[in-house]
7-cyano-7-deazaguanine synthase
Amino acid sequence: MCSIGGVLIFGDLDDERARAIEDKLKSIAVAASERGRDSFGLVALDRGGRFRAYKDRRSASEALRDMPRMITADTVAAIFNDRAEPTTEHVAEKSQEDIQPMVGERIAVTHNGTIANDGELERKYGLRRRSRIDTAILPPLLETLWDGTLEDLARILRDVVVGSYALAILDSSRPGKLWLAANFKPLYYMWDKELNALFFASSDDYLQSDVAPWEGNYVKRLEPYTAVEIDVDRTWRTVSLWRKSGGRRVLVVASGGLDSTTAATALLRQGYEVALLHFNYRHVAEGPEDRAVREISKALGVPLIEIDMDFFKLAGGSPLLGQGEINRVDAGREGAEFAHEWVPARNFVFIALAVALAEAWGYDYVALGINMEEAGAYPDNEMEFVRLLNKALPYATGPQRRVQILMPVGGLVKHEIVKLGLEVKAPLHLTWSCYDKGPKHCGRCGPCYMRRWAFKINGVRDPVEYDLPPEVEEEFWRGTRPYS
């Protein structure tokens, strides 16, 4: 419930650079006070292993006006905290010990989040803390349990501490080292090339305002569920804080079409435990899609979960929802290249629901049939969309189970998907791709156009029937081999 920040300083430090670093640190702390105004504290560590602390009951913008020089030529690192006091930890009369960063015998910690089992840790390990604030348990805990390695720090955070955190650690016995760790709390770092220093804070906005690319510094987010050890000798080590499940259970969002069926079959052949998840969202092709996905489930021998929903009626405006024309004559190619049938945020909604179910039911992955071909028209089929969602998922799911999104055909175009489907023996003959309700594929909408050509490019006749004149079909498929 705070904003944290600090700096690790590299190389020899003269007075001019020390002042510049302190000014930079102050500006970061003031910007960061939007996340905490109940107190401010800063702890500096010098090269000889001595801590100096400044703590104030006021917000950073007020407290910093009276702070003495904290960054001097002997300083190697500093950490600060802008505290937002939770209702559960209200302290009417704060002492210095109640203000972060918390300092023990040799460990100093600044922490954003909640340590939910602080009382249990205190009793179990016989710890004595200097404040009832939950963060105060961390210095004595680390001084008691931590062997000093990054791997052991990860073990403690993953298996001993219960709660949320982004934190920074200094150890007076090892000046020149800084440890950062975060689960789902945000933490960013910035390399300032001019000041030869690494700054960190709870938001990239606090580190650097908008500047031209050639004028700015390198800013990056610490990946969720990661711990890092940084040394002034310029070594950088990271370790994952995820609990390794080793699971290969995957929930495939399945429409009954080529892409999701090929994706599901490919995953099944790779040894994943597959289940299909199908949404009936009151769209035009709901009937044939539903029949197709049920037959595909039987053919693959995998479970099928169906969800009926009418949420998209509120959005409306799409031919897929029965509002407008789908089968425009000779519009197939145009329909393949332009999103005539766009349903607002459809894949985004499906993914959100699928991830929630995956977390609740113990699946490790959600898989989609998104692909490069349809990404030319539909933004929610773009690989970048899924890549960014995977980066956001640690902030949307609980810490006990990691759910990731897979896109087995994400980098393929339609004829490559058909090729893969044939290779893995996906039941392509059971699939339904048309935007219309049948009983045959219309042969004129965008998906039909792409499907027909994808099979033809592979030299195989599509096993499904199209509502097109026999002479047209005979001419189109001439020279192809039968599907088998």
In short: The chain has two domains: 2-240, 249-476.
